[in-house]
Design goal:
Length: 369
């Protein structure tokens, strides 16, 4: 659960039962921050020269910056509601060990341990921007902060599907739809199958899967067709995939028959995935496609994230030393996320397999005692 779902701040007791205000009305947005904090925050995102030390967040993804704003806004709202001094005081000047201990207790009533851990990490990172002259690492070491055991226990265990099973089911749906009498509904089924196949093969985030455009991301020439992303990935990395030769006949069929049928009389917008109304598919619709496909074809929940998990888990189980390959396939700059999440949190069984293979690899290299 994210900060935006935490619910009600502490409010004075009332003799009448009232509806709890929604948290987004209590979390202070950037426009409501103290002027000094807002000025520092906005400056940290603007790089005025090559080596601009004040632009500490210039290279961060928009999602990361937004998450930190929400985290700090939640703390500001808490301080306002719980009797902190007037608006002229900067919130950073009100943050003490006692204040943060109380705030952590407040979070414990609303969030699971792993979410609290992330909130405290984001808060420490945010405060290092707003008040760099102070040391904020102690926020992660509060006496009532979740322990490592609590954090691991609270994490939702992900059971990734077999990518080969997902891919085969997706291709089967495409092929079955393609031999039906030509109609919009058949083209919708074919499109959905190809979307799932792309996700199973390339492990893209939903945003990137949905934004694919011909000529921008889908690069077609006489000999090869490639899928390229240069600067829209979450981590601002670049990735390049060749479309496998066995998928090309299906992609060609989609581009020459199914896609034009879905476009109808609508002007071509270059988007690869077209709705039955001729518009480019929205992220919400893509999420619904995954959900319906998972329930109907696999008997389980399915989304882009779980397929990314499946790819990383499959690579690591085949060879624990390929965590750099798994990170590159996911578009990560480092192996940190793969090491901390994909290789150890997918399931207890995956953890045991990974550890067993890692021990075997160490024995081969003569590194195990």
């Amino acid at each position: 659960m994210s900060t935006a779902q935490m619910g009600l701040m502490k409010v004075p007791p009332s003799s009448t039962k009232t509806r709890k205000p929604r948290f987004r009305n209590l979390c202070v947005p950037l426009a409501g921050w103290h002027p000094a904090d807002r000025a520092i925050w906005e400056r940290a995102q603007q790089r005025n020269r090559l080596f601009d030390r004040a632009a500490k967040m210039a290279g961060l993804a928009a999602e990361t910056i937004s998450g930190r704003e929400t985290t700090y806004g939640a703390l500001v709202a808490y301080l306002k509601v719980n009797g902190a001094p007037g608006a002229s005081s900067r919130p950073v000047d009100l943050i003490t060990v006692d204040t943060m201990t109380e705030y952590t207790d407040f979070l414990r009533q609303r969030l699971k341990a792993s979410s609290i851990h992330e909130e405290l990490n984001r808060l420490a990172a945010t405060l290092r921007i707003l008040a760099p002259d102070r040391e904020w690492g102690w926020i992660r070491r509060l006496p009532n902060a979740p322990s490592r055991a609590e954090i691991e226990q609270s994490k939702k265990r992900i059971s990734p599907p077999d990518p080969a099973v997902v891919l085969n089911a997706a291709l089967a749906q495409f092929d079955a739809a393609s031999i039906k009498p030509p109609c919009v509904l058949a083209s919708v089924e074919a499109r959905d199958g190809l979307i799932i196949a792309f996700a199973a093969l390339f492990a893209l985030r939903r945003k990137n899967l949905g934004e694919i455009e011909r000529g921008t991301h889908l690069l077609e020439d006489a000999s090869t067709v490639r899928l390229s992303f240069s600067d829209t990935l979450k981590n601002r990395t670049g990735i390049l995939f060749d479309i496998p030769h066995w998928l090309m006949p299906r992609l060609t069929l989609y581009l020459t028959q199914h896609r034009p049928r879905l476009l109808g009389k609508t002007k071509d917008h270059s988007g690869l995935w077209v709705s039955r109304r001729g518009t480019q598919l929205s992220p919400i619709t893509i999420a619904m496609i995954f959900n319906d496909f998972g329930n109907d074809k696999l008997g389980r929940h399915l989304n882009c994230h779980v397929l990314r998990h499946a790819m990383a888990s499959t690579i690591i189980v085949r060879n624990p030393g390929d965590n750099d390959l798994a990170a590159a396939a996911l578009g990560h700059k480092t192996t940190k996320m793969v090491d901390e999440v994909y290789s150890k949190s997918a399931s207890h069984e995956l953890t045991r397999v990974w550890q067993r293979k890692l021990r075997a690899r160490k024995r081969q290299l003569g590194l195990e005692n």
